[in-house]
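Table 4 source record.
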Amino acid sequence: MSPRANQLADDSASHGTNDAPAARRLRGPARQEDAGHDPMTDWWHPVGWAADLGDAPRRTVLLGRSLVLWRDGDRVPRCLRDLCVHRGTALSLGEVHDGQLTCPYHGWRFAGTGRCTAIPQLPADRPIPAGAEVPAFRCEERHGLLWVCLGEPRADIPDFPEYGRPGFRHAACPPYRWRTSAARMVENFTDFGHLGWLHDGLLGSRDDVVVPEHTVQRTGHELRYGITMNVPAADGINDLADKTGTMTNSYLLSLPHAIHLRSHYPDSGHSRVLFFAAQPVDEHTSIGYCYQSRDFDLDGDDRRYVEFQEVLAEQDRVVVESQRPEELPADLADELHLRFDRVAVAYRRALADHHLVAGTPPRA
């Protein structure tokens, strides 16, 4: 080691734990990520089902950033950059000891704050360098999902009012991993024109594809819209007395990538609720998390509702993955829009106004 390198190593080891500027210094990929602000980092995103996070750390990717999730001693979910500050090792390959994350390479231990609490290679009387810190991110458990915000949240985690409410049964669907952007996944829920055509016999009929009149209202970071339509019984998934009937859909779209849909059946007074949120893994890959919930057939088999949603999702996936570009176009003139596309247009405008569409400038 050169004399200069020796000096740097000694200086690093001599800093106390209260050296805040050194503790906030980022290195390597973490510094590169921090160099340009991505407005999408200032929103909550789902990163997995809470039940899937057990005693071992788990890796995920959000907005192109590798993250590690684990539960601390109080079973609270924690999230760090999946990169040890020492030698760039994936911390997700390590273990959890006493609620703290241990690097698999040298045994360095990190608290939920990202601060290193133990370096086995140092003598007991040597302080831990202030720079021994990994970027930590906000992580919450809500609606049975894990949510992460990489920046400063501009809005709350999207609401799912029926979750935990008596009289509802919730069926969690397997995650849907698609080769497309999260915005494309969500925009699919704004497209009424495809329901009867693509989902013939499930959500409509090719014999009746004229889209009924509907409106959309925008308040801040939310869009509210709805539609009443005739639908098939779909083997009892739609709670209808006959082979076809009326269903009123009420949507709440929370930016950037969450949908709450309540499908109400006026004849029976019952409702089926869908909650969907998408994880933007990167520009070309997204993961959707979905609940099929209902206030009827409470003793019925959840698999029927999950399989119904999987059929719909697979029909959608093939089409949505074919769309180009994967990101929504920043310019509305890049695609042709008709009157029944008004909700999709409103969604694109809302994303653009919050600088969440590729090609729009970041907010000041």
